[in-house]
Design goal:
Layout lengths: L3 H12 L5 E8 L2 E12 L5 E2 L6 E2 L3 H17 L25 H6 L10 H4 L5 H10 L14 H15 L3 H10 L8 E2 L17 H9 L21 H5 L9 E3 L1 H8 L35 E2 L16 E5 L3 E6 L4 E7 L13 H18 L1
Antiparallel strand pairs: 1-2, 1-10, 2-3, 4-6, 5-6, 7-8, 8-9, 9-10
Helix pairs in contact: 1-11, 2-6, 5-6
């Protein structure tokens, strides 16, 4: 069942060329209340309409749906703790400037690392140990007393920690620990080629990242940049360099299967965690800092959060660069999912859709309140 107001609003944003498609899902107490698909998931090289089961590149939602969830499982089993130093798992972090960085720092983006670096221009190989070695040598560009909204480097490092503990790659870990127990069929890293026409397309080439590298004074002349339509493979350049598998990006899924993973963060609905573990996702670990952060998530009490004022302050959520978002309100057990592909068939600069995300949450919360 769709919400006319939400669907009409999102169609307006499609008509305004913010993004070519949108799929949304709003749930309460484990039941889907509203959902709809609008626009075209693929515009080039052919037109394919979005459907409720369209598969999207979730981008940084990977940080919470895979890495954050796996870290919670390890904390629960006692194999790691938030206070563990990263140097316990990697000798590269034993230096004077990195030895005090903890698992909590990585999960809350308070490690001091910058938001992003083009590892494909900094590393000679894509071996995970080589990548983490290079990351450990980057200078601390931010104060440990501040939150960096998007620090991919933190979650690439967490991918290394997970691999050290499990002895497997994160895609294998996620399949065994998350996807198979939840019986997910359309959630994976590196989607099968035969599913391409069910996948929302992304940017043509990696022009956005290329321009960002130029702005940061990198020599981009020797790198083999993608110049084709990215469709069915990960958009993020660092994750692509890592063969489509990482802790910060790489996950593809549908709205309904994203919802099934999102339920694992709610104490009354989870089957992968102990209910008490779910408190970690609504706990503010960065009180007094510029952003309110729980474990892997941002909290709605953060100023100008995309949750909007309609969601409770301890609601937690995350965004993805490709145009995806997930927010969860634990007290009401409400889940809000909005998947778009704002990087597809759009010229640079891509539209900032945070105002659209806020309005989506306002409309959805209002409709749920009216149905009570």
């Amino acid at each position: 069942m769709k919400s006319e107001q939400i669907s009409n609003f999102l169609q307006e944003r499609i008509d305004a060329r913010d993004f070519p498609s949108a799929v949304y899902l709003v749930a309460e107490k484990g039941e889907i209340v509203f959902q709809d698909a609008l626009g075209f998931a693929v515009v080039e090289p052919e037109k394919i309409a979005a459907r409720n089961d369209t598969i999207y590149d979730l981008a940084s939602l990977t940080k919470v749906l895979v890495t954050g969830l796996l870290c919670a499982k390890l904390i629960e089993s006692g194999e790691i703790s938030l206070s563990d130093k990263v140097c316990k798992f990697s000798a590269f972090f034993s230096t004077k400037t990195k030895s005090q960085i903890t698992i909590q720092n990585l999960l809350t983006h308070t490690s001091g690392f910058s938001a992003w670096k083009p590892l494909y221009l900094n590393c000679n190989s894509n071996f995970l140990s080589d990548l983490v070695n290079v990351i450990s040598e980057f200078p601390n560009e931010n104060s440990p007393n501040s939150v960096v909204t998007y620090s991919d480097l933190n979650f690439i490092t967490l991918r290394f920690v997970l691999a050290e503990i499990y002895g497997k790659s994160i895609d294998e870990i996620a399949r065994k620990e998350i996807f198979e127990p939840l019986n997910l069929k359309d959630t994976f890293y590196n989607p099968p080629k035969e599913l391409q026409k069910r996948i929302a397309a992304s940017e043509k080439g990696n022009e956005f990242e290329k321009q960002t590298c130029i702005e940061q004074s990198y020599d981009v002349s020797k790198y083999e940049w993608r110049d084709y339509q990215i469709w069915g493979e990960v958009h993020d350049g660092n994750c692509f360099f890592m063969n489509g598998i990482s802790g910060h990006a790489g996950l593809f899924s549908t709205a309904e299967e994203t919802f099934k993973i999102a339920q694992q963060f709610l104490a009354s609905q989870t089957i992968l965690l102990k209910p008490e573990t779910c408190a970690l996702f609504r706990t503010n670990f960065t009180k007094g800092l510029n952003e309110a952060r729980s474990m892997a998530f941002q909290l709605a009490e953060t100023p100008d959060s995309t949750a909007s004022k309609s969601l409770a302050p301890d609601s937690f959520g995350h965004l993805g660069f490709t145009g995806t978002s997930l927010w969860i309100e634990p007290e009401t057990e409400r889940i809000f999912i909005l998947l778009t592909n704002r990087t597809h068939a759009r010229e640079l600069p891509f539209v900032n859709i945070n105002a659209t995300r806020r309005r989506f949450h306002e409309l959805a919360a209002q409709h749920l309140d009216e149905k009570r």
